[in-house]
Design brief:
262 residues, 65% strand, mainly beta
């Protein structure tokens, strides 16, 4: 499948049409994953954002209808296309090629509140060459998220579910609180995931806690540091090769970054 390297737009007062290589608008930060200035973490909570299993982009088109109200607006988006990507997990390469992908999103935005609800129906060809394993399966990815901001503090929370027909069901969530003092932003994030596969006799659960801070050097540059501790499960690994001893044991990850836009 050829990959489109351009995005064309048509914009009117209430309608935006896009075609090309697009981001899948599933979560609050899906369309700005590479613009790290848009969130406080070093990286968004991976329990939730890895549900896409590498399928963050697609070749296709979307239509966004926008309706403005007093101090707020509502966006309704529909999209359709195809995606092709590769994900490496536990030393194995997994190839994803969607036969079809379509979905929709509702997004409500006010001065201090964002609510995002989205769902995607995906039919995917999954191929693991090292295991001589391939399967075509349908899945439904749904998500709901909200962000509430005040002058000095804010709350961000999201929940997502990936139901892969006849194979597995994975859910993930997080709740993040932050507080701002001058250029400093401190935050704490609780995350969790539940994975239930047909090949396993039990559910796999994991929880994590992230504590960190961000210092805004300027409007376009930030220093970030965070410590993550928890059990981080990989739904794709469990699906493809099964669990290994100590797979879901506790890990601690310390991260520091310098983020900037130009």
């Amino acid at each position: 499948m050829a990959e489109w390297l351009f995005v064309s737009h048509y914009v009117s007062d209430n309608l935006t049409l896009r075609a090309g290589r697009l981001r899948l608008p599933q979560f609050l930060f899906s369309e700005t994953l590479l613009i790290t200035q848009t969130y406080n973490w070093v990286r968004p909570p991976i329990e939730l954002y890895r549900l896409l299993a590498g399928l963050h982009r697609f070749n296709g088109f979307s239509a966004v209808f926008k309706r403005g109200f007093q101090n707020s607006f509502l966006e309704a988006e529909i999209y359709r296309g195809q995606a092709k990507d590769e994900l490496s997990t536990l030393g194995l390469s997994t190839l994803f090629n969607t036969k079809s992908l379509y979905g929709g999103r509702l997004r409500y935005v006010t001065d201090n509140l964002i609510v995002n609800v989205a769902a995607s129906d995906i039919t995917t060809v999954v191929d693991i060459p090292a295991l001589n394993y391939g399967i075509t399966t349908g899945s439904l990815l749904s998500a709901v998220g909200l962000q509430f901001l005040q002058e000095r503090w804010g709350v961000t929370s999201e929940y997502g579910n990936l139901d892969i027909k006849s194979l597995s069901d994975a859910s993930a969530y997080y709740l993040s609180l932050h507080y701002i003092v001058n250029q400093w932003t401190s935050f704490i994030t609780f995350g969790g995931s539940i994975i239930d596969t047909d090949s396993a006799a039990e559910e796999f659960t994991g929880e994590s806690l992230t504590i960190g801070c961000r210092y805004d050097v300027s409007d376009s540059m930030s220093l970030k540091a965070q410590v993550l501790n928890g059990e981080l499960l990989d739904a794709t690994a469990i699906l493809s090769v099964g669990t290994t001893p100590g797979f879901d044991e506790e890990v601690t990850v310390i991260s520091m970054t310098l983020d900037f836009i130009y």
